[in-house]
Amino acid sequence: MTRHTKFLGWDHYAKLASARSKVAAQAGHPEWTELPSTRRQAEDQGKKVYFTGLECKHGHVTPRGINKGCAGCYTARYHAV
């Protein structure tokens, strides 16, 4: 089954990539931009993590696992024990 999304225009995708790079640099991890930007891309490339540049529901801006888990949330849960 082929998955399709509506094309939003090249400007939209360029702005997303630029914002993603800026957020990664502000977090002190510019290497995060080398990760896939979506879960689908990560799965297709056989990677286990991806970086959207967007906050999770708890406000973390960190890479996410393909199991939909935010690394910041995982770390917070792990250190809370």
Layout of secondary structure:
Blueprint: H1 10-26, H2 39-45, E1 49-50, E2 64-65, H3 71-80
What does this molecule look like?
The longest helix has 17 residues, at 10-26. The chain has helices spanning 10-26, 39-45, 71-80, and strands at residues 49-50, 64-65. It has a two-stranded antiparallel sheet with strand order 1-2. The model has no long low-confidence stretch (mean pLDDT 86). It is built from three helices and two strands; from the N terminus they run ααββα. The protein is globular. Helix content is 42%, strand content 5%. With 81 residues, the protein is mainly alpha-helical. It starts with 9 loop residues before the first helix and ends with a helix. The protein has a domain at 31-81.
Q: Kindly report the average pLDDT value.
A: 86
What percentage of residues falls in helices of 4 or more residues? 40-55%
Euclidean distance between termini CA atoms: 42 Å
Uncertain parts = none
**Pattern of helices and strands:** HHEEH
Strand order of the largest sheet: 1-2
Counting helices, strands and paired strands, the structural category is mainly alpha
Major beta sheet summary: 2 strands, antiparallel
